[in-house]
Amino acid sequence: MQSITYTESRLAEMMHSAGVRPTLQRIAIMSCVYHSTKHPSADDIYTELSPEYPSLSLTTVYNSLRALTAAGLLRTVDIDSGNMHYDMALQTPHSHFMCRGCGRIFDMEMPSDVCGGATPGFVIDCVDVYYKGICPQCANIQNN
Amino acid sequence: MQSITYTESRLAEMMHSAGVRPTLQRIAIMSCVYHSTKHPSADDIYTELSPEYPSLSLTTVYNSLRALTAAGLLRTVDIDSGNMHYDMALQTPHSHFMCRGCGRIFDMEMPSDVCGGATPGFVIDCVDVYYKGICPQCANIQNN
DNA sequence: TGCAAAGTTATAACAATTACAATTTATATC
DNA sequence: GATATAAATTGTAATTGTTATAACTTTGCA
Question: Which CATH number fits domain A94-143: 3.40.50.2300, 3.90.550.10, 3.30.1490.190, 3.40.50.720?
C-alpha cells in the first residue's frame, strides 16, 4: 500500500475543476483526508491541523468538509454512530470495517454483486457496506 | 407481505427468555417496532405511544431500546445519520434502503457472499448494507 | 407486610453539528 | 493598481439526538 502524494497544487487543481475555491484551509483539510488512511472525523482533522493553523476554526472544518463532499471530492463514512468520518472520493468502490477494540476504520473490498438483491423499481444511487468486529492487531492482543 | 401479530404475552415471553423484565412500557415499545415496517426512531416511538401512555418518557424509550437491543430482541438501523432507527431482530439477514425523497426505510435482500471481500485476519461479527436512492413511489411522483 | 432491586420519570448534561453575524480574504471591474 | 463585491473564515450561540443523574414508583421475594 504505497501512499500517493497529492501536492497542494494538485489538490487545488482538483478543487478548481470541481468548482470549489481552493483556499488555504480547504487545501489543508483535503490534504489531511487524502494523505491519511484513518478516515478522520471533523474533530480529528481539527486536532491535527490546529498546531500548524492556530486560527483554524472547527466551524471551518465542518464547512469545508461539507463543501468538498458536495463537490464530490470527499465521501462520508457513516460507520461510527454519532461521528461522521471522511474518505477520499477517488478510489474504486470499497467497503469499511470498524474495529470494536481500537476504533480504527479499515478499507475492504466491496462484495461483488452488492446490488444483486435490490428490489426492482428502486433506484439506488449509493451503496455502503459496513463491517464491525476485531482487527488482526486487537485479536493478537486479546490472545496473549 | 402479511404482518404477523405478536401478542403482548408473546412479546413478554420473548423478553423473559432473553432476560429482560417485560414491563408495560417495554412491551409497548417492542410491539411498536415489531408491528411496524417503518423502522421507527426513538422519537417516532415516543410520538406514537404518547397518546396511549401519557406518562411515558422519552428517556424510557431510549432506555428500553437499549435494553432490548442489548438482549438481542431489536437491531439498530444506522442508515439515517443522526437518527438511530430500530428493527426487529428475528428476521433473516437483510439490507436497508432509505429513500431520499420520502425518507422511508425499506427492507431489501442481503447480497449473497456479502463478506466475500473481507480481508483475511479480520473477525467480522456484524455486516450492514445500506442503500440510498429513490423509491418507486417517489420516482412516480417525479415523473408526473 | 415489608424490603431490596429494578424500572420509570423529569431534569439536566453532553457531544456533534449547524446557524448566525461580524470580520477577513479573494475576485472582478474600473 | 484601487475599489466594490462576493465568498470564506471565525467565534459564539443555538440545535438536536442521546445519555447521566437522582428522586420516585413499581415489582418480586422473603
Answer: 3.30.1490.190
Q: Which of A90-94, A109-113, B123-127, B129-133 has the lowest mean pLDDT?
A: A90-94
Tell me the CA–C1' distance in angstroms for A30 and D2.
34
CB A108 within 8 A of CB A97: yes
- In the numeric block, the cell 482487527 is attached to A135
Task: Dump pLDDT digits (tens) for A22-55.
Answer: 999 999 999 999 999 999 999 999 999 999 999 9
B94-142 maps to CATH 3.30.1490.190: yes
Interchain pair A116, B111: CB under 8 A: yes
**DSSP code, position B41:** B
Chain B interface, mutation test: which of A83, A114, A125, most B Cβ atoms within 10 Å? A114
Beta carbons within 10 angstroms of residue B18's beta carbon: 15
Q: Cβ–Cβ contacts within 10 Å for residue A137, how many?
A: 13
Hey, what CATH class is A8-88 in?
Answer: mainly alpha
Q: How confident is the model at residue B117 (pLDDT cuts 50, 70, 90)?
A: confident
The domains spanning B8-88 and B94-142 adopt the same CATH topology:
no
- Residue ranges per structural domain of chain B: 8-88, 94-142
Say if B103 is an interface residue toward chain A (CB within 8 Å): no
- Please tell me the number of Cα atoms within 13 Å of A42 on its side-chain side: 18
Residue ranges in B39-144 assigned as alpha helix (H)? 42-49, 58-70, 136-142
Q: How many angstroms away from the CA of B8 is the closest CA of chain A?
A: 31
Nucleotide nearest A64 (Cα, C1'): D8
Regarding pTM above 0.85, the answer is yes
